[in-house]
Design brief:
The structure is a single chain. By secondary structure, the protein is mainly alpha-helical. It has a two-stranded parallel ribbon. Helix 2 links the parallel strand 1 and strand 2. It is elongated, with a radius of gyration of 17 Å.
Length: about 100
Amino acid sequence: MMEIMDSCNVLLLPSLSEGMPTVVLEAKARGLDIIATDVGAMSELEEHLLQTNDPEQLARSIRKAEMKTPSGLSRDYSWKNIAASTLSVLDVNGEK
């Protein structure tokens, strides 16, 4: 499941009914943007929520997310890549 989430940019959860969905917490932990409806305890997990039964608002949010994160863009926040990025920033004089 983590491999699937790591290959995504957005979690889309246009629910009519939810409690407090764990999938939102998991997606946020993996760095995904959330597009979800304002049901159940979602307002405790996410600020910007959609109204239920509003397909136009849902479509606008999806298009906005597509423009923000080009398809094929994969976020790789593995420790290996974070360490490499950090070292490249610290390597100011070309020394390691």
